[in-house]
Amino acid sequence: MLQPLPIPVDAEVIRGLKYFDQLDALLKRLHEVGCARDAARNRKLHYDQYCMLILLFLFNPAVKSLRSLQQTSELKNVQKKLGCPRISLGSFSESADVFDPERLKEIIGELGQRLEPHNRDPRLKDLRDTVTLVDATLLTALPRMAEASFLKAKTGSGLVKWRLHTHFEVDRHVPIRIDITRAAGGAADERAVLERTIDSDRLYVMDRGYAKFRLFNKIVAARSSYLCRIRDNSAWEVVEERPLSPAAVAERVTQDVLITLGASSKKKTRPDHKMRLITIQCKPHRKAGRSSRYNRKGSTGPACDGELRLVTNLLDVPAEVIALLYHYRWTIEIFFRFFKQILGCRHLLSHSQNGIEIQTYCAIIACMLISLWTGKKPTLRTYEMICWYLLGVADLEEMLGHIAKLKE
Question: Beta strands 225-229 and 307-312: pairing type?
């Protein structure tokens, strides 16, 4: 099928580049990264310039693809403001394998320290640990034709799938970490990746795909805590029944008990700490089969019998707060939608792991910059206003007026 020709990018739609001046000091440390093997000292596209171009792609909807980004680099104003030369498609693709994505994590950490919590829910004020949502999402990419043909013959699909393992802070409403792996088992399993990235003083809120006794034990050993949904067929023994407060009943909590999780015949694999089970009434649904893919009566996700079963090592937190914490878990799903559909990261500028990591980390920086510029969490309306300004549709006064309303 013929692909539509790219829309020419005019200099008139590339506005607001002075805001990128603020990024110069932030990214300047990356300028010489990847130049060690450049004995001739003739590298033209440097790491900081590469990142500036990706940020331009993220913040300007007129730039929709690698080809339009290459065309944008030919504009004199872009070259002057971003300090980068005209790029070729080949040099942009090859540069991704030279630059080290880990260096961007330093910048993400520094920006994260400057971010303030956004209107923290007062019901969570007594929690000791930082509420951190954990989940993963998939990105797909079409590799080079030779690799695609090999994959097609081996797996039946020419698409390469990447999994983005994300840690998302509720208070600051930004991702603080994303680890990228090929979407396969073993070391790329969601639970295995989390085991390698556990930090102290965090409350990890997870869905049932992360339910694993060894993972629970490692989180507690790291002086953190967890809240995780377990499967409907999980086995446990009740140790102590707790009374439900009116506030808990109002949040549809149906049970609050201390338990021993796991079958009694497998004591060696049980959690090595006290656990608590909270059950919450919810709407039951069944899983729709392939034949009823478009049947609204079913669901594409796992079936639910009408109860959410949540386990945690938080023994003294009120049951209604536990229910609220799991409700916040959906915030990370909203971020994934913002990341893919609004920032445009469903479209990958590079299909190598290095390139995908750099684009992903630049997207995290973009989210943090929106929060720092506006003092509020990134939203579709705010992102659109920034884009209108960069396109020249909105002027500076209108954009600052929108930000002022957010702060009010």
Answer: antiparallel
Rounded to 10 deg, the angle between the 47-59 and 353-374 helix axes is 60
User: What six digits make up the tokens of 406?
Assistant: 């957010």
What is the residue whose two structure tokens read 């799903």?
333
Please report how the helices 380-391 and 47-59 are oriented relative to each other, as an axis angle in degrees rounded to 10.
110
Distance CA 378, CA 365 (A): 12
CB-CB contact of 34 with 95 (8 Å): yes
User: Token digits for 300?
Assistant: 């594409």
What's this model's pTM, rounded to 2 decimal places? 0.80
Look at residue 156 in the predicted model and tell me its pLDDT: 56
- The answer to whether the beta carbons of residues 389 and 15 sit under 8 Å apart is yes
Categorize the per-residue pLDDT at 158 as very low, low, confident or very high, splitting at 50, 70 and 90. Answer: low
Whether 140 and 396 have beta carbons less than 8 Å apart is answered as no
* Residues 242-294 pLDDT 10s: 999 999 999 999 999 999 987 655 556 678 899 999 999 988 877 665 544 44
Beta-carbon-side half-sphere exposure of residue 298 (alpha carbons within 13 Å): 14
- Tell me how crowded residue 114 is: count the other CB atoms within 10 A of its CB: 9
Smallest Cα–Cα separation from 349: which of 64, 48, 82, 78?
Answer: 64
In this structure, how many other beta carbons lie within 10 angstroms of the beta carbon of residue 161? 14
| Interstrand relation of 225-229 and 202-206 (parallel, antiparallel or unpaired) | parallel
Task: Look at residue 247 in the predicted model and tell me its pLDDT.
Answer: 93
Are 367 and 342 in contact by the 8 Å Cβ rule? The answer is no
Kind of pairing between the strands at 225-229 and 174-182: unpaired
Could you tell me if 9 and 75 are in contact, meaning their C-beta atoms sit under 8 angstroms apart? yes
CB < 8 Å & 24+ apart, contacts of 255-260: 255/279, 256/319, 258/315, 259/311, 260/236
Euclidean distance between CA atoms 97 and 354, whole angstroms: 6
Q: CA–CA separation, 53 vs 72, rounded Å?
A: 9
Give the span between the Cα atoms of 71 and 278, in whole angstroms: 56
**CB-CB contact of 387 with 60 (8 Å):** yes
